[in-house]
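Components:
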Amino acid sequence: MSSKPINVEEIKKELIAKMPTKVARKRAKSIVPGAGGSGEAIPEIQANVRTVPGIITQRGCTYAGCKGVVLGPSRDIVNLTHGPIGCGFYSWLTRRNETDAGPDGDNFIPYCFSTDLTEHDIVFGGMKKLSAAIQEAYDNFHPKAISVFSTCPVGLIGDDIHSVARQMQEKLGITVFANSCEGYRGVSQSAGHHIANNQIMKHIIGTDDTPVEGKYKINILGEYNIGGDAFEIERILEKCGITLIATFSGNSTVESFRKAHFADLNTVMCHRSLNYVAEMMETKFGIPWIKVNFIGAHATAKSLRRIATYFEDQELLDRVEQVIAEEMPAIEAAIKDIRPRTEGKTAMMFVGGSRAHHYQELFGELGMKVLCAGYEFAHRDDYEGRHVLPKIKVDADSRNIEELEVEQDATRYKPRKTPEQLEALKAKGVEVKDYDGMIGQMDKNSLIIDDISQYETEKLIEIMKPDIFCAGIKEKYIIQKMGMPMKQLHNYDIGGPYAGFVGAINWYRDIDRMVNSKIWSLTKAPWQSEGPELEASYVAE
Amino acid sequence: MALLRHTTGEIKERKALTVNPAKTCQPIGAMYAALGVHNCFPHSHGSQGCCAYHRSTLTRHYKEPIVAGTSSFTEGSSVFGGQSNLITAIDNIFTLYDPEIIAVHTTCLSETIGDDLRQISQKAKDDGKVPEGKVLIYASTPSYVGTHITGYSNMVKGILKGFVAKTGTPNGKLNIIPGFCEPSDMAELRRLCGMMGIEIIMVPDTNGVVNGPMTGKYEMFPKGGATKEEIATMGDSMATIGLGRWATTDAVNYLDADFKVPGTILGMPIGLQATDRFIETLHKLTGKAVPDAITFERGQLVDIISDYDQYLYGKKVALAGDPDQLLPLVELIVTLGMIPAYVVSGTAGKYFEDRMAELTKDVPYDCKYKCGPQADMYLLHQWIKNDPVDLLIGNTYLKYIARDEDIPLLRHGFPILDRVGHQYFPTFGYSGGMRLLEKILAAIMDRQDRDAPETRFELQM
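Structure:
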């Protein structure tokens, strides 16, 4: 850990010093200091803008966000990639979305479906092949739903995947829908999340009116069940007596999405991936939403209390307190054992579109400080808070992502709370439609960096020497070669769950193991140690 | 409940749908090949997802840093062409990362809009974006043609086109173009040639690049890889050997046609006879005697095969992968007295059909094999459902079939995401053959131990 006083402006200068002028000017706007707690002015950060070509980026593409992230974890949909083989291949089982299909349930997650377009299809069009592939998928697998994803060349040759989907839906009598998620659309995965969510909103949510039993009914938006996170959250909610209708989209099913409009509260985990779905569901069905965070034991407890407070029911409030009281002793025991070994250590996190914020709770519980953080594909509101939403300029890259206009559903709209009730809830600390973002909660001496590049990562580590770095698979071994542990926070390496109470303990143990591993002190051979050469005793004698 | 619970033995003809492919796309092969050139930075000309996916997959396979650039196309570049993105990228890469060489490959996106890499490279040079002494090389690798093997082949040829010259003074060396194989296999080729006393130029050579040491310092360009100076002299070599018909034919023919360096294409030296042919070819081309040490290793491999015949004979094997790897593996399987019951390769070629027919003609089983469209792991699994096998050989994606059908799996090929070893220990050559035998026998004998009733549980096997 560096003991030098930290001057974030100096560090920033160092990060961009070697870049060509235009690049440096652009990158400078994406690097800002934290605001040092609430009440301070939140600096403006540049986010959700194009990656600089040639700069080694963490980002992926729109297809990856659409197929890989959002629809991928829905186990009973046949997700059919329309394109050459690569895109389907690379998004095949690489996200660690755990799934419990039950004894009779559908589970297509271990399958990779592709139209495997070849040159002939690119020249003559791929629509016929797509219809045939949908038919063959139906004949072989009989799924409840088929979802089609277009890749880069499909957009260019102009295949009308939506009309093919409509025709096949009519022919087969199951839900068939398409996503125009070509990789070149938008500037990152985030565009793909939006496209997938829009299609789920349009084609699935609210299409089954079979009532759902339960006193306290919620949905979770933006939880992907990496390493079993959703299972732990489901365990806790069940213990509290809260009915979880749908998780978007970890361990999810088409059936659960169809009934999501019966929830009385939407809880938003990943603000980036689904805040607009929460908004649309409020407009259409009258379901309010609150921001929650199940990453961190105390964050989980706080989120449970917020949910219980929202329902304004003493029985639920008591039940939640009882569950927290039951779960906390194990957390405290783990902290007592581990914290002496992690206290005072430092971390950096550059990952996702909410995780780099959520995981600060867990590091805090270990007495560790996050020196620098940033998102891979977030927008300004994820950093600065939702109050900047009206000020965000819509540029050409955002304009080509469809914005759905939804209206009150004639039969399904039902306001859950009156404006007065919501105001009263606010007084109790439960504010709906609110998210403060990451910058406000980070130290003034920290740096917030959007879409960090490999070059900046390397510089930042050299200057600040954290004890652990969190990012994704592409960054992992670059950082480890520098003699520092790297925790994957998209895929968790092989770890997890890290959500909820059990997850917190898993995290404490994994971080303890990583920052205290002996191997990092053994990168040099004994004969490579600095200092005067040892005298060769045999020769000297 | 089975993981692949929707797979049944009822095989319906498919013409449009691929399920669980035994291949992937061109650019990843190009990226891997470029990593085998010293101080070379691979660059993907397309939208950034391709580059992210290829880096992720190679990283997961090697557990090593894999860096590459992307032109980060957005909608505008897709409409107006990717020239300005590529030129910006070239400028940024040389400024920030300072490689000697940038190896650009296309994607299905840049190919469909018709970006011309030769023209853009010239423009980058004319605009002064390529510093003195630095080089741009390129290959066209549309994802909708061929597979990752084709991409590897195209980039290898691109590398040669970028550097090879002819001075007319023979260098006394032999060119070796290995196919899409592991860095450990490339190291083994070097070791065998060294034992023969043959000086070689090997392109690409990923040994030392994607299986490097932990030193506490990150090197974007490690010591390994063929140097551009070395590659430049390949036109003066005595001959070229290409190992793997799909991955190396173009490069070998290029050296033959343009530089009059005579070429020979062999299968990858996996197993006994394929290695025999390789060593024999080295001997004939160079006139160097085969040293006793190599004959000794060969004898050891033959010894293992004869010692363990009883565990191998008649056992059925299903394989999926790349044809350059599969054909010598199948030959080995047949040599061992095993049955290559089912074989699929997403990479197509008539030679595959012909060679498979030849290799299996005396096998007492109706072996099924397929390459090209719909030659996927779903079909392989359906065949297995109808008549099971004793062993699976292929990449990590086969582990789902292995678990569902309770069949041992030997991981071989690309990608291997869940085991260590492929980076460090070769399967090429006689010693690589011994390693393969060790793994095949361990899989079969572990299984025998696991399944043996108490009365038949044996201490010695």
